[in-house]
Recover the amino acids of this structure.
């Protein structure tokens, strides 16, 4: 990023752009990509553009009823989710203000075959083509016996979707080639039950891990362009409460912890100070990152 302007001046200019423009700027250079995930810049954007940003929380009761909360990020307004239809399940969100959801049928049946289950775990894969405005079925995703997807939301980066598996491997789906593959993480699966969480750190795919004897400290690993895992210095430090668990990284300086019905934001590079607490209706089952500047989008 070769510029005669100071970083502060660049932030002042960038903070007045739309989220779409900010996303494009991230692709122009490594420096702009790093800048776009700075907590100070994101706070400026929320102030200048009235951006609503945070996490949509989804809880499940009685197996089919979905209760939704919104945990706004620091300096963000809240979001009223009462417009969503009853018994709606959120499937995915984006950082450009889009939410994909479906209505659950009141009467559904699930067929399970123990014989099939012993062979492998199969996931049906459908993709929505925005050019033809149609759904297409792709080749099924087949995982090894006793391996399945974990509950947290997937991580999207560079046209690919990443999902953590129960054996600590990572499933990658490439939206351009419409292919999938499984690759290993830096933390092998073992019986010590090291806590792991797939995260996005500074625009890169990351994995947070906390061994049982880590005294509340999470290590952050990031995947390089060469396909190698590198360990970031510093780590993410939990609060003294043993109930708190890391769920996401909001930006390059803000961690998201959950303590039962409490949703907590920490500045982990500034003394791990708590900067916001949101009290929820229940313990989160799933969380979805959401950001919107309410600019109209023509999808048709």
């Amino acid at each position: 990023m070769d510029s005669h302007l100071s970083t502060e001046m660049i932030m002042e200019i960038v903070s007045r752009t739309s989220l779409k423009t900010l996303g494009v700027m991230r692709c122009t250079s490594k420096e702009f990509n790093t800048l776009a995930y700075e907590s100070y810049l994101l706070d400026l954007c929320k102030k200048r553009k009235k951006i609503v940003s945070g996490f949509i929380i989804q809880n499940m009761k009685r197996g089919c009823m979905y209760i939704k909360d919104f945990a706004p990020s620091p300096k963000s307004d809240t979001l009223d989710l009462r417009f969503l239809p009853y018994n709606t399940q959120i499937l995915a969100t984006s950082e450009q203000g889009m939410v994909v959801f479906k209505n659950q049928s009141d009467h559904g049946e699930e067929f399970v075959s123990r014989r099939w289950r012993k062979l492998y775990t199969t996931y049906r894969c459908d993709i929505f083509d925005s050019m033809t405005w149609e759904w297409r079925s792709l080749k099924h995703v087949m995982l090894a016996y006793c391996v399945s997807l974990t509950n947290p939301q997937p991580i999207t980066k560079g046209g690919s979707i990443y999902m953590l598996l129960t054996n600590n491997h990572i499933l990658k789906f490439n939206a351009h080639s419409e292919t999938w593959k499984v690759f290993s993480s830096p933390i092998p699966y073992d019986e010590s039950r090291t806590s792991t969480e797939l995260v996005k750190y500074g625009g890169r795919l990351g994995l947070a891990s906390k061994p049982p004897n880590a005294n509340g400290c999470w290590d952050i690993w990031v995947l390089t362009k060469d396909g190698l895992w590198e360990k970031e210095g510093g780590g993410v430090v939990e609060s003294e409460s043993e109930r708190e668990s890391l769920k996401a990284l909001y930006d390059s300086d803000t961690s998201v912890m959950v303590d039962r019905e409490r949703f907590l934001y920490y500045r982990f590079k500034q003394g791990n100070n708590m900067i916001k607490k949101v009290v929820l209706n229940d313990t989160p089952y799933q969380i979805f990152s959401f950001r919107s500047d309410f600019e109209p989008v023509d999808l048709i």
Observations:
- The first strand starts at residue 52 and ends at 61.
